[in-house]
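thought: fold this chain, then report.
action: predict
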Amino acid sequence: MMKGSKFFLAVFIASLLFLPAFAAENPTPQSGFMADFIDTLKHVQTSMEKIKSQTRDMKKASADIVTKPVAGLKMAASDLDAAASLMEKYQNAENPIIRETASYTLTVLISLKKINDKIIAQYETLYKIKPADFNRDRFFSDMDKLVAVRDSALNSLFDCSLLATHVLIATGSDKEKEQVFLTISSGERKQLLKKIDASFPAQVKKGLQVGQDYLTASAAAIRQVLAEKIKTADER
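observation:
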């Protein structure tokens, strides 16, 4: 009997050793989605940075120089495509909150892509006119309108992030008292916090703050929920 007990004890210990690896390879649906959602925000952030770097100080440039951002804007479009591809795979997710968040986010990303295409088309019109015919005021007035529409879409992306936080939260009874808890494990919480901190400015650690841009605020909102002192699914 002792030999048998030792054998089963050894098997049990071995199973504990392999459990973390198994959990890492098999994340909860909520954790997998949130990891992709954070990457989606990062892709959009990269896209916006490319757009800003290409169009900075363009209002002071001559007509021939103004055409130069087109290549950079097209590169920014590829980042938006990458973001959309991450959300597309969740359109038929079993979890209704994941499904709704993915659908809403995808709609916003498509809008951002269309706006970027319009901005590219606006710049490309300059290839077809003579520098002497370039109406600077009209061109940049039209461009400012497109940028305002893009900012509105980015604001909607922030709304998507608030919706995404509901993927992380659940309620249940604990000793006859209703409790709020995270739907992910403690290890997954650490991984998601690490991913956000590696992808966004340090100010996201302070949570939502006045004056943050839409993308930083989006990441900060998610991080704030992850950092809340509430139990995870495996700590209940």
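thought: worth noting. The two ends are 35 Å apart (CA to CA).
final: tokens above.
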